[in-house]
Amino acid sequence: MQADDARYLKRKYKGGSLDVHPTEKALVVQYEVEATILGETGDPMLGERKECQKIIRLKSLNSNTDIASLARKVVEECRLISPSRLPEVEQLLFYLQNRKKSAEKKEKKQIKPRDLTPFEGIELDEEANINSIDDYVELLYEDIPEKIRGATLILHLARNPDNLEELLQNETALGALARVLREDWKQSVDLATTIIYVFFCFSSFSQFHGLITHYKIGALCMSIIEHELKRYDLWQDELQKKKKADILSNLKKEYEKALKKYHGLLTKQEQLLRVALYLLLNLSEDTRTELKMRNKNIVHLLVKTLDRDSEELLVLVVSFLKKLSIFLENKNDMGLDPLNIGKLVTLIRIECSKVQSGAVLLILLSATLNMQSVSVHSWLVCVCVSGDEAQRQIAMCILYHISMDDRFKSMFAYTDCIPQVMKMLFDCVEERIDAELISFCINLAANKRNAQIMCEGHGLKMLMKRALKLKDPLMMKMIRNISQHDGPSKNLFIDYVGDLAAQIGLKEEEEFVIECLGTLSNLTIPDLDWELVLKEYNLVPYLKDHLKPGSAEDDLILEVVIMIGTVSMDDSCAVMLAKSGIIPALIELLNAQQEDDEFVCQIVYVFYQMVFHQATRDVIIKETQAPAYLIDLMHDKNAEIRKVCDNTLDIIAEYDVEWGKKIQSEKFRWHNSQWLEMVENRQMDEAEPFMYGDDGEPFLQNGDILERPDLFYSADGIIPADGAISPEFFTDFQNGDLLGPQGFPSSSLTDGYGQMGVTPARPATAYGFRPDEQFYYGYTASR
């Protein structure tokens, strides 16, 4: 069809079905539009049909709406509805009107969690009037029922914020209320609740807090709460006694009667506690007032209230504890021991989001402070793991905080936590697992027993499969932590050495390669043929290239050094690496990273492994200056570096006489540096007078023998008197059975390869832990 031929566009509407909107006050009209393009002669050239819908919103529809009139108006204004369908429209509107009414009732019932107002006032058969306030005050001087009536009338006035200013001016009324509360609160719970409620109305506004402080209502509320909690304990004891007595006498009437009375008293008491605690919560806006509450043990009282069943009261208590926990001192006062944490776990199961969130948050806060009490109770861990989905993230945070402490990692092995966590890992459909979950698993894997449980069945196989498929560095970090433990779990990695080595040569994400290298470096397995692995996957060029300073990130270069240290334990691998020129590359890297203790420690460890093998030992001693670098590092400030250097130099000294003398001389010079300096630099004072003893032997006047260095030397010429002291002098006095000719361990203490009987493990890092040991939540991987 040519564009010039199209002259007209014709639309045709055809009405369809009619129905009500599922959620709104609206009708939904389905219709069909047929669009036709006509040519110059009026013949149709192109046509298209499309189904559409129109929503007619009825904002004015309510229970008083005239359905017939509204239906006629809808039909008149909407051309898509035929007038013949008027009865159908009326029927739909009638249905919509009734449906919406029932839905509103249901919605209100769901949203309203019982009573949104803080407390329920006592009903009256008369209306309170501010002009009659003096009459109400007079009632406060009568008997208890009249006092309750007078206090209730004043309460109705106080609940209106407009009356608070005028009530504030009436000191007689407020003074009478405070006096009655102080004198009669034990006689009537209703009276105490009502009067405290009056002051609570004032506490809702910060400008009236001075009034409450003036009448010491806060301190009185603390006393009332403490007394009521003691009464609650007495009620519980009495109820248990009657229950036992009724069981013995096979009569339940007395117990049921006591139980009914108990519930009635409990309801009134919880209302009193609620109004008193709410007033204190308002007053705690001022940190000075909060400190006074702490001194009166408010935290203990709140924790003691956690075992109540009233959701309204629990919301208030948990909110109060959350506010107080901002300060470390209050958190310490909480003393969330296993019993109290059990109360919080019970609150998580309550079908109230505010109580659940507050309880879980309090457990999270306590996890940072009192992890022992959390971890001892394994059932808490299980509840957190298998809890509601909405609470799972916070529950994982709790578990993560516990797992950060090495003392408590092993406790997870005695719960169902690890199998459940592994199931959560494998059930995760996302490419990247939640940070909280994988962080928790990484910390767990740092414990040997936990790692063994993780490997049970096909655990390690599933982890490796997921990590290699998704190239997940965090999952691989978890596997790396598992691989660091000696025992059966490490031997399982033999099947995956090829898969891990294959990742190194590929251009994978650097963080993922770092974890693969770290995992391979942990595999100190005697049966593992490292030479075959290096050749098959052509890893030597990769290792050598990544030893160049600046060739990659420092973390990757460090893992390459650690990897070389692991494979150098094998004689054939050490020879292969030496021939490739890796030793000079290590020395160059040592020069570049001499300020980094981590690099220095691991490079020296590589030298330590290589000096065990004849071929590499000759290269290190005769073709490089590595021993000179090691001598310089003998006295490094880092203890781990000193330790590895000493072990390496001891072996070098045993196999090379020349270097042995240099090493021994340097050790002697360093050990006796102060003495040597004094001997060589101090001049003899020949004019100094001598004093003689009874035996005729001369000694110094001041008794300082160091004033006469010549007295150290005997006449046999073993030590020359010129101060040129040779350390070989001291080897003549060593025990020759245990020491070699250079004063170092003899070959009798070594194995067939000249290696000491006990080979030190890979050195700890400069920070006191191995890099694959602990994982902190701050780990940032590209996700």
TrEMBL record:
GO CC terms: axoneme; ciliary transition zone; kinesin II complex
GO MF entries: kinesin binding
InterPro entries assigned to the protein according to its UniProt record, in alphabetical order: ARM-like, ARM-type_fold, Armadillo, KAP3
Pfam families found in the cross-reference section: KAP
Gene Ontology biological process terms in this record: animal organ development; cilium organization; microtubule-based movement
Domain of life where this protein originates: Eukaryota
ARM repeat boundaries on the chain: 581-625
Keywords assigned by UniProt, alphabetized: Coiled coil
Positions in coiled-coil regions: 241-268
Name used for this protein in its record: Kinesin-associated protein 3
